[in-house]
Sequence to fold (606 residues):
Amino acid sequence: MGHLNTTRNVPNADDVYAMLIDAHEGKTKDQSDAFNARLILTLINHIGDDAVIVEALAVAEG
Amino acid sequence: MTMQERYPLAYKSYPYARSPDQDAATPTRHPVVVVGGGPIGMAVALDLALKGTRVLVLDDHEGIGMGSRAICFAKRPLEILDRLGCGEPVLDKGVIWNIGKVFHGEKQVYEFNLLPEDGHKFPAFINLQQPYFEKFILDRVHALQAEGLPLEIRGKNRVDAVEQDGDGAVLTVMTPDGPYPVAADWVIACDGASSPLREMLGLGFEGEVFKDSFLIADVRMKADFPTERWFWFDPPSKAGASQLLHKQPDDVWRIDFQIGWDADRKEEMKEENIRKRVGQMIGDDIGFDLVWSSIYTFQCRRMTQFHKGRVIFAGDAAHQVSPFGARGANSGLQDTENLAWKLQMIIDGKAPVALLKTYDEERIHGAKENILNSTRATDFITPKSEISKLFRDAVLDLSDKHDFARPFVNSGRLSVPCTYDNGQLNTADALPGGPARSRPGSPCPDAPMGDGFLLGHLGRAKDTRFQVLALDAALPAAFSAHGIDCEMIALETTGNDLLRERYLGEASSAVYLIRPDQHVAARWASFDEARVSAALGRAIGKEL
Fold:
């Protein structure tokens, strides 16, 4: 069982953020929402640890 | 004939005076004519004139424009000015700062420290009103003119037309006494973001226009805010979608409000409305004078080539960025240092005209880097779409509590000097263990040297000599190749840890070949005449 890493972990934050925003370029709201859903599911699979997912859900809840 | 003033002056430094050229039967020919007397035009003119070229500056005004405008000047441009002999007055007058804080509402969500390192003559950043910055350059020009500097400035000389042939250009120059022609071997256009010369030559200026506007209010007040850059997203004052506070000399503070694309400019510029916004932000109990205000919108764009025939573009005329990151004037000055030595060597017949292509390549590389950073900051501050705003707001929300989100907060990534990686003038790095920061293409990092600093000894202002810098390595007494007599500098690093750290790294000795603009052309562990000679030839464009 892992723990959610909430310290900075992305070396090129500006590059990654720009990739994310660019990926949405030209998409309608519905397309963007669907894209985000697919992206979240893909990343959840990569994490593959439900304890971590539980912590991430709590962070997103605010 | 009356000529319209585009802006009021802070200093009337070069009033119109009739030139004998205006009465000449045929156009007088000048080796270099600089169009535009702003900081970029004056810096490149001074650089070339110091190297011995006769330079004529044509400015459509009679001095330095009013208004604080550019206020953040980075270390590299200060080093460039120091090479020209006017870095110290700029440093003395400027406000040094290192800390930037970003707030979301009332909460601080991000902080950066420009981490001042020891052993540099100049700090990472100073703030100084642009008219002072320009005046210190001009003071230097005037002092040197008295000693015979071959630099002439003509005020109220506006270029209205340009015609090029293979080896020069003829400019039609409008004056209060009517037009006259000026012939030039080379023209350097430093005529600003709306560059008339660029228009006249029909050259493209492509890029992105951002749909937002910002109100600048520079106010004079006695306030005890720290000397830091403070930026708010959704400020508690509600005085703008974002707001910036930054200190300048003379108790003047730069305040920026993001007021939206649809703002009524005329209404917003009324003094009572500006005062209301400022009062909302700093509190009604603090008295202040309004020093200067302006509304700006911005673009990130650049020319696809920086020269066309004999007309070369520099500064805002060649590339324009949003102000977030202080990459405008700072990159313009890096254009001038890159251009001056190359053009001087071409004029002297020491380098092929093809060397000028590398001005385009190296400075377009710089412009791309600046545009990329400035566009990203602008996209964060002024999200271009709903989804972009959604992610931006998510970053700000998460940053209140979580460290991981803070690196994504972007209120401007501040100007750092450009390294010309993969530049055609570089020779591949041949110093195993050498520090990355002084790899070929880098501007030489400063370091302590005796009572002064290393950069004071690199990049001679008065010529275009290359230098060979040895650290704990043997050098011959003299070395020349390709018609260039290099200056030899041999240093011991014993007792100078910073010099060793910045130039040797893991290596036990090093030899650097350094360009006249203080950039590293090549480096090795020891001096080898054949290799240094080959690198020198490459660095002056012999292989292009």
Summary: Chain A is about 70% helix and 0% strand. Residues 6 and 56 of chain A are 9 Å apart (CA to CA). The mean pLDDT of chain A is 96.
